[in-house]
Backbone:
């Protein structure tokens, strides 16, 4: 799922500077699960913005809404349609796709992102999410025992490890992070498939997904 | 919003703090009249948004009062409340409301004096004394 | 005039290379002094490439300077800052100006350097870079197009004998050797038993590649401890940090030179490796003393 984090409050306040009435919009999918932009977080941020602005003598008027999936046009229109005309700007607590969907539909209204969308990942422990997939469009998880070297190796090497691995198999950039290639070695060793790691991998096709990416289904 | 008022909202768990507040009233023990008691089935029922909303609506301080550690009727309600109070503290700090304006208090049902002291202390903090 | 490095690899008993580190700026005065000092004392001089991800005068520029002054340079290329197009182009340029030894490295991460917000490239890794050089040597570029004006590089790579765990590193090392490597310069070694164990693996993998033990000059206990924490691939054992700490005040550098000399002497006498690669980071002017301490 998509993992995001709320921007620092100062940054959000600066974006909203000069606006008096806004709509704060959450999403019930990925950002709810990673505690960044769900209905609850919409309520919390709205409270904080009201408290902050009233403290400065100019309280923000805030409408709140939460869409099932902020990246679906129909759902956004259904949930937000009539609220949008009452406000000057929209603060989206969705991921980057959600923000842009809203911006596309309501072109005359400024739309601001309250979150920084960070990666595709999963929960490692309660309240902790880690990056798993590099969206490279050329998945090689079969060859690496199910561990993605594109994002879990800090240098994205296909023939790892590099010579900078720290003692105990930790990554050069962060002693708290595992060297992905040590993880891959151990995983493949367990499966008796180290031959896959001994194989030489050609340079990656970095244009497997031409940005901006576009996928069309084979059938409608 | 006039935060020069010294209103305190006290979320009181009905198994402990609410009973204390009741008793203190019946015993005609004097406690400040700036506190508004809100009865909850457990301190764990209080969520972060409730605390923030209290400040939004004009409270200058919030107390979340539950059972003593290990004595929660719902087992972990008071522990969760403690974590949420900490989180609320951070959120309030982000908007310039800090200096201990929200506090978790653990009480047994017979701790009237403690109850009064906490309310007085919060009041003093708010009034800058 | 230094002999061609390829020749040195073939003919010399004990190969000695050293390193020249460019400064951050367009001033080549100081490095020129180092070049003059060392070019005839060692078989080849490496020039680092934005070492430790700190922006500096480029390796290729200094390699040209070394050539101009009659020395034999090794062009260090990392994959951190350039994609496959730029690397191929740089290699063509290097060769056209007589720089024909290349050391193929992955490169330190951006995070250890001084431009921490830069975009890391890593279009290739070190094994792929070695393959790329051979492709160019065969007269084609990576996309299969014929080259108008070929190249013929002597190819080197690195290894980390003190990596822990060592097995994944050995897998990578084998890939480098299989890709075809004329010489290996290892990361800093201090524990010679560990080096011997590594060399056992190495000799089984490939007898022909010349392996040079990396010797990094230590100048004091603090510096040694700092490097442990902050420089990727370097592990200084505690007993050496202690030996440095016990040296009388102001003699840290001499002690470091003594230690380096000692290590080199042992590597040579016990024939542990085919030579050494001396890295006196920031202290290039002391390399002649190290050579003396080593009896070279």
Residues:
């Amino acid at each position: 799922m998509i993992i995001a984090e709320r921007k620092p409050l100062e940054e959000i306040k600066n974006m909203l500077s000069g606006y008096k009435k806004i709509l704060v919009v959450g999403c019930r999918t990925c950002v709810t699960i990673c505690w960044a932009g769900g209905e609850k977080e919409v309520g919390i941020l709205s409270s904080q913005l009201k408290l902050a602005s009233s403290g400065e003598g100019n309280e923000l008027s805030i409408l709140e809404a939460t869409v099932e999936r902020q990246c679906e046009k129909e759902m956004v229109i259904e949930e937000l349609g009539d609220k949008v005309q009452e406000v000057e700007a929209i603060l989206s607590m969705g991921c980057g796709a959600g923000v842009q969907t809203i911006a596309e539909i309501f072109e005359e209204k400024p739309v601001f992102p309250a979150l920084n969308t960070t990666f595709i990942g999963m929960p490692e422990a309660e309240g902790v999410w880690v990056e798993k997939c590099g969206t490279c469009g050329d998945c090689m998880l079969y060859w690496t025992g199910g561990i993605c070297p594109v994002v879990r190796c800090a240098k994205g090497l296909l023939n790892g490890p590099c010579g900078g691995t720290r003692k105990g198999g930790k990554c050069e950039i962060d002693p708290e992070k595992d060297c992905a290639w040590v993880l891959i070695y151990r995983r493949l060793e367990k499966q008796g498939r180290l031959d896959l790691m001994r194989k030489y991998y050609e340079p990656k096709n970095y244009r497997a997904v031409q940005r901006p990416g576009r996928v069309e289904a084979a059938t409608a | 919003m006039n935060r020069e008022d010294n209103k305190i909202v006290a979320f009181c768990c009905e198994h402990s703090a609410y009973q204390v507040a009741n008793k203190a009233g019946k015993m005609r023990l004097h406690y400040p009249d700036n506190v508004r008691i809100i009865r909850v089935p457990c301190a764990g029922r209080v969520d972060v948004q409730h605390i923030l909303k209290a400040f939004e609506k004009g409270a200058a301080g919030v107390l979340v009062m539950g059972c003593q550690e290990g004595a929660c009727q719902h087992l972990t309600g008071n522990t969760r409340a403690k974590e949420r109070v900490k989180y609320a503290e951070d959120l309030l700090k982000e908007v310039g409301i800090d200096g201990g304006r929200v506090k978790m208090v653990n009480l047994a049902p017979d701790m009237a004096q403690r109850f009064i002291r906490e309310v007085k202390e919060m009041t003093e903090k708010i009034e800058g004394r | 005039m230094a002999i061609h490095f390829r020749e040195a690899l073939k003919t010399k008993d004990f190969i000695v290379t050293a390193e020249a580190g460019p400064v951050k700026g367009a001033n080549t005065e100081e490095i020129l002094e180092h070049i003059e000092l060392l070019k005839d004392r060692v078989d080849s001089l490496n020039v680092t490439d934005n070492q430790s991800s700190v922006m500096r005068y480029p390796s290729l520029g200094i390699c040209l300077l070394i050539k101009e002054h009659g020395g034999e340079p090794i062009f260090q290329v990392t994959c951190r800052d350039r994609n496959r197009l730029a690397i191929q182009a740089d290699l063509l340029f290097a060769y056209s100006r007589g720089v024909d030894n290349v050391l193929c490295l992955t490169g330190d991460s951006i995070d250890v350097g001084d431009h921490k917000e830069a975009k890391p490239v890593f279009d290739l890794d070190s094994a792929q870079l070695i393959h790329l050089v051979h492709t160019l040597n065969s007269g084609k570029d990576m996309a299969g197009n014929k080259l108008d004006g070929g190249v013929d590089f002597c190819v080197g790579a690195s290894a980390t004998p003190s990596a822990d765990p060592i097995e994944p590193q050995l897998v990578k090392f084998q890939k480098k050797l299989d890709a075809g490597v004329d010489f290996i310069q290892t990361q800093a070694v201090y524990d010679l038993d560990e080096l011997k164990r590594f060399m056992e693996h190495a000799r089984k993998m490939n007898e022909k590649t010349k392996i040079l033990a990396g010797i990094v000059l230590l100048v004091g206990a603090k510096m040694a401890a700092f490097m442990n924490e902050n420089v990727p691939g370097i592990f200084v054992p505690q007993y050496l940090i202690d030996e440095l700490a016990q040296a009388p005040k102001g003699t840290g550098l001499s002690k470091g030179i003594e230690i380096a000399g000692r290590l080199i002497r042992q590597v040579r006498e016990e024939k542990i490796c085919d030579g050494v690669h001396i890295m006196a980071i920031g202290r290039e002017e002391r390399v002649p003393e190290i050579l003396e301490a080593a009896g070279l």
In short: Residues 173 and 284 of chain C are 29 Å apart (CA to CA). Residues 5-218+273-285 of chain C form a domain with the TIM Barrel fold (CATH 3.20.20.220). Chain C touches chain A at residues 79-80, 84, 106-109, 111-112, 120, 122-128, 131-132, 142, 158-160, 163-165, 167-169, 171-172, 174-175, 178-179, 187, 232-233, 235 (CB under 8 Å).
